Each structure stands twice: as C-alpha cells, then as structure tokens.
Amino acid sequence: MEIIGILTRDPYGWASTQLILGVRKYGLRPFIIRYKDVLVEIFGNSRKIMVNDINILEELDVVIVRPIGRSSLDQALYRVGLLYMMEDGGIIVINKASAIEKAVDKYRSLHILSGNGVPTPKTLVSENPNIIFRYLDRLGENIVIKPMFGSRGLGSTMLSDRDSIWRILQALAYNRNVLYLQEYLRHEYRDIRAFVIGDRVVACMYRENPMSWKSNISRGGIPKPMKPDSEIIELAVKSADLLGCEIAGVDILESDGNRYVLEVNSQPTWKGLQSITKINIAEEIIKYVLSRLKR
Ligand SMILES: Nc1ncnc2c1ncn2[C@@H]1O[C@H](COP(=O)(O)OP(=O)(O)O)[C@@H](O)[C@H]1O
Ligand SMILES: [Mg+2]
Hints:
alpha+beta; Rossmann fold; Dna Ligase, domain 1; D-amino Acid Aminotransferase, Chain A, domain 1; 3 domains; 5-stranded antiparallel β-sheet; 4-stranded parallel β-sheet; 16 strands; binds adenosine-5'-diphosphate; binds magnesium ion
C-alpha cells in the first residue's frame, strides 16, 4: 500500500486532518512527520531522516508539506534543508523546497513574477529608510508597508501621512527590518483567491471584507463563490508555475479594471474556500499527488 507523508506542525489542524481523511479515502496510508520528531543522521556517506525509528528516505515516495511556520533563522534553514535532503533522497516533495523558498519571500517572488510579465503592484524595497523615503512619491499618495514575510495580512499597514510613514520606516530599519513598500491599489475591499493544483485552478473565491482593505480570511474576509475567467486562471497558473509551486493559493487584486498578482502562497490552507465549493480540495490534492507518483 502506498504511504503518503504529511509534514506538519499540527497533525490535528484542520488542513492536515482533511489531508489524512483524503489519503484514507483513496485506500492509502498517511505517515505524519512533525519537525520535532525528526532526527537527521549523517555518518559519512550514509544519511537517514529518522521519524519514530523509521528512516523515511527508505520508506516514503512522497511528502506533502504543510506550513513551515514561524521560526527562528536556524529553524527556517534547517526545515528547508530537510526538504532538500528528502528531495536528494528521491522523495517527491510537494511543494518542493525551492518553490517554498521563493514564495515565502515577497521580494524574491515579486521580482520573478514581474520579470515574467505578471502584473504586480509598484514596489520599493530598501534597508535604508532615508533613501526609500526620498522616492516615496513614486508610489503615489497612499502607501502600503508590508512585512516581507507575510502573515495573513497582519502587520501590513496603509498610510498617506508622510510624517507617520517616516517614523515607521525609521523604527522598522532600527529593528533591522527590510523596508517593503507598495503603491496602494484602490479596490472594492475584496480580492480573489485562486487555488492552484498542478496546472489547474480547482477552486476560486472572492474574499470580501467590508471592514478592511485587507481581505485575508483571518482579518475578517468572507468567502464568496466566484467562477474564474480565463484571465484569472492564466494568471494564477502562470504565477504558481513561475515559482515552481505545484499547489498554491494565488492572491489577485482587481483595481481600475486591471488584475494584479499580490502573492503566491506555497503552503495555503483552504478552510474558507472549502466552505463555498462542493469540490473536496484535500481529495483533489491527493489525486494530484497520486498522479505525480505515477509519472
Ligand atoms: N498593494 C496593495 N494595494 C491594496 N491592497 C493590498 C495591496 N497589497 C495587499 N493588499 C490587501 O492586503 C491583503 C494581504 O496582502 P498580501 O500581499 O496577500 O500579504 P499576506 O496575505 O501575506 O499578509 C491582500 O489580500 C489584499 O486584500
Ligand atoms: Mg495573502
């Protein structure tokens, strides 16, 4: 029987539970890997990734990766390194390490997306608050200041008052933050989340938030069904593909009749999306994983 690895911090979390049910539904066996249960053994040329006395490099063909999560620099590097080690050991890792690395880094993904013709918001990035402040007006009146490693809309702020912006930039730089500023794209307090698996958009929704310009579900966004047109599908699939994501939640904003890709989430959850679609997204993921195994 095929064993499907699920790398997760919380096996009892909603998405992991859905995946486990999906795996069982297809008559397969889930194998849960928690970072804290892992022991890596590198003895000369012999290497093992041990989880509960099992060397997963020998036992597993595929691992689905759930969010790496908030972590120290040590942990982030080690956890991504672990994915690379699995890949080197012949395991199919979804999403693969290089895709996660690119997608979680808003700066790097923006430069890849925009460099390949995907429309993105005008953005300034710098470590130096004085330089970025000097060029601020190039972004227009309203400025969005975002953490480079996003967290569900939390911490992104929109300001127009130059003195407030100056003070925030100084404080962020003092704390060694990289400054990541965008033009504010006027919109109707909603955005689009397209869920990509392989080369398909399997489900799509508007996220509407009457209370905030940020549409994240965790900021109060409400899922509304939407049927993606060909432009949305093309934008979402292309963006995911450019970053190497086989599974992705692509955020798209409509502003003045144009569509912009805001980001690609390489470890998306789908609880909100699942509430407005009949398609079982976890099962779609498992079906895709099986098709990858057969390739
Ligand atoms: N440049 C922008 N102009 C207007 N709204 C934005 C802009 N960037 C993000 N938003 C809104 O803020 C939300 C969060 O931004 P996003 O880039 O997806 O970061 P994260 O979800 O990682 O916090 C988006 O879903 C969108 O509603
Ligand atoms: Mg987002």
